[in-house]
Amino acid sequence: MTADPVTPARRPRAARKIHARSAVAGGAKYLSLVLASGVVLVPLLVILLTALKTRQEALGTGPLDLPGDWFNLENFRIAFTQGKMLPAFLNTAFILLISVTGTVVIGSMTAYAIDRFEFRLKKLVMALFLLASLVPSVTTQVATFQIVDDLGAFNTRWAPILLYLGTDIISIYVFLQFIRSIPVSLDEAARLDGANSFTIYRRIILPMLKPAIATVVIVKGVTVYNDFFIPFLYMPSGDLGTISTSLFRFQGPFGVNWEIISAGTILVILPTLVVFLALQRLIYAGFAAGSSK
Amino acid sequence: MTFTYLPIADMIGYSFTDWDGISPEKNNVGLKNYTDLFTRPELFKVFLVSGVYLIAAAVQICLALYFATVLSFNTKCRNLFKGILFFPYLINGVAIGFVFLYFFRPHGTLDSLLALVGIHGDHLWMGDPDLVNKSLAGVSVWRYTGLNLVLFLGAIQSIPPHLYEAAALDGANRWQQFRHIIAPSIKPVISLSAILAVSGSLAVFEIPYIMTGGANGSQTFVIQSINMAFKFDKFGLASASAVVLIILILFVTWIQRRLVPEERVELS
Q1: CA of B203, closest CA in chain A: separation in Å?
Q2: H/E stretch holding A128
Q3: Does B24 touch chain A (CB under 8 A)?
Q4: Per the UniProt record, which residue ranges are transmembrane (chain B) (predicted)?
Q5: Is this complex's ipTM strictly greater than 0.90?
Q6: For the structural domain made of A84-251, what CATH number should be given?
Q7: Chain B, nearest residue to A63 by Cα
Q8: For a tag on chain B, would you pick the N or C end, based on fewer CB atoms within 10 A?
């Protein structure tokens, strides 16, 4: 907006003009927001529509046409049973549970050790951690693969678990930030009362880390649930599909049956949507904290 | 640690050999893998693909900045819009891949939508080598804008409100408020997003791998290395290319740190 000189006499008109302008600006603002929401939602809604169509409808109608029967859940049934979605959800849940718990325990302990104890090479360890967090893990898979193979974990559920536990530097950072804000005097008081390091960790540090734990659980949980590459590379066996790899395998047997692929896709997105709606506030906070470290 | 540094060390070792990943013998070939990497044009082409994603990342940051600013002023249904824009970031990558395979299909959603506004004709969004990377980069914008948005929004909301009031009293308009209050205070977050964008665009993998498998010239650096290693058993060459990638990313980060001397700003 240009600031043209306004003489007192013209002021009312100018004010009206500004008012009109801000109305236009407001309109443009909402228009842009609605447009962006449309861009986000349309591809997803189309998939939902397709998932509700019968085979003939999916082949014969355009992608934007509505399904004939809104409660046609047949595709979901097929996707769930033939697409092996149940074992996939179980596998994912198993991996998710162990990895997330393990990350919380290992991450918080490491952070506690780094922050509260002095040891040689501490600076070096910190620098190495920081450097490692910059290297995208996808790039090192060529060699990681050999190590996992040597450990005999290839094609078991332990391969991804190991990798999820071993490569989590971000959660250490999140914990580190929090532990720094816990006054050391608390530790010292407990130590005077005869508590050893582990008791201090267990009784004082861990309970105070709750917000950090929430962050780590959310970020890690979403990462593990959505990860495609690690299970794809390390668990090629058909029985060991996670939701990502099982969905990926829809491509073959269901070929061009888009209504079934769509149903599978919706099945995978649905839990995410539910969790998102339930924990919105925590999720925003978690990702803001998790990625800015 | 084990899974970051041991692989890197191993990989640097492998990168000087012609090991195929299985046979017990490894021959030392010196720098041959590296010279191969830089002299064979088809191996080098992947960097052009990264360029497309880099441009997309810039678009994504601008979009996120715009929407974060808009949403930080009082707006109706703010949380609804924020939620909608952020949600794609949480969706499973394979699901996103399928959603957009359907979206970009010939006679698919995008073509139908374009037909509605009068643009007819089938575009091979996924098949045309000139279009495929743009389409895929578009998917990546769709997926990641929400994350940047939430990061920026968090930073903007930590700006004390009296600054705006003071600025408004001085007659600053929205653009001036953005330029002189918002932009400087969220600079650390923007530069962080820029670093992530650069390293992200070099390491694009999931979406193109799921959607095209790297066909039609949509091969990215990581897809290429992974294929080299696990399809063509060229572990040496793959290791060399991964080493190059890591060096590149560290180099970019280093330059970034140099250009934007960073005072650590605590956000949360």
Answers
A1: 7
A2: helix A122-134
A3: no
A4: 46-68, 80-104, 189-211, 235-255
A5: no
A6: 1.10.3720.10
A7: B109
A8: N
